[in-house]
Amino acid sequence: MLFLGSGISAATCLMWAVYFSLRGGWLIVAIDLATVVLSGVGARLTWQGRTRAASLLLLAVLYFVVSGNALFFDIPSAQVPRSVHQYLLGLGVVSCLLTRDEPVWVRHGIPLTFLLTYAVFAASNVGWVTSFVMPDNVRVTASWVNTLVALFTVYVAVYVIQNDARERNTLEGELRDALVRGELQLHYQPQVANDRVTGAEALVRWKHPKRGMVSPGEFIPLAERTGLMLPLGDWVLRTACLQLADWRKRPETAGLTVAVNVSALQFSQADFVARVLDCVAQTGIDPSRLKIELTESTLAHDLDDIVAKMSALKAQGIGFSLDDFGTGFSSLSYLRQLPLDQLKIDQSFVANMLNSTKEAAIVELLVSLGRNLGIQLIAEGVETVAQRQFLQSLGCDTYQ
Length: 400
Known about the structure:
Elements: H1 2-22, H2 26-47, H3 51-72, H4 87-98, H5 104-123, H6 136-181, E1 184-193, E2 196-208, E3 212-214, H7 216-226, H8 229-247, E4 257-261, H9 264-267, H10 272-283, E5 290-294, H11 303-314, E6 319-325, H12 331-337, E7 342-345, H13 347-352, H14 357-373, E8 376-379, H15 385-394, E9 398-399
Parallel strand pairs: 2-4, 4-5, 5-6, 6-7, 7-8
Antiparallel strand pairs: 1-2, 1-9, 2-3
Helix pairs in contact: 1-2, 1-3, 2-3, 3-4, 3-5, 4-5, 4-6, 6-7, 8-10, 10-11
């Protein structure tokens, strides 16, 4: 859908660029060409898998293109009504689909902006009459085209939403069954310090009997929306603790640690501390071998409650790590208040640090900050010897 939207936007603006170049409207031609470039950027972002950025860019471009056309080119007259604004109705429905996983204010704000703008254009003759206004004989044909395409857009958007809802409902039921049938697996990504494996991060994977390996980016958000994150999180924690108990039986693995990601929903449970300690007691593990990883989304709630829970678990020997450190806006303020043991440098910095002086400077700053605060630093996504050597030169000997 994003590729299609970008293509339609680019094609429409190219058409108008040709039209206004013949009429000498070079300012509008420049605006149309800039919109074509932005549509190309949106298509590239989609190709790179950055669908969120592509969605927001595409919606913004289409909103301003349609609104601009309605304000300056498609001015209603006594003979021919305005028609281009009808695209806003279809785009409002499309935006409901593209923003379904966004925060509430985005999820409702963007569709409402499209629909309210549509209502303003539909109920008024607002617009600026200039030399670029299309003549009525052109607008008569355009009104048929605009109406038919706008209705087709609404139809396609509703059809996609229906299919999306059906697929999500199916996937939700299959995920519930997967928890019962044992289709979920934990993979352990090694964590290395001074060239020696010291532990691992537990990463949940879903081996579907028909779909194969389902991406965590697909089923984790689904679990969070449907309330399945609680049983899923309990399963991950218990399975990781059982793995620790098994490792403890062998001398070569007895000293390993396991890091477990905990969602905001899990951590907000009133009995979260009791659940973790019960799991530790039942599996008989050494609590100092268990680390709980938090993200800044987890910390965006009642900070006093978070600190109290962390302190209670730390008193029993359980460690805490802040994941994706450096990507949020409030990380530094958290360092002053939270009893953290470890900070994880986000892999986006690590991946580019050898090719970008800015990324390298950020990594160096984070390593220095952690060292001065007495907090261990671990770099995520280290894939090459050169990356490891650079981190070691900065004083970061732990990586994943």
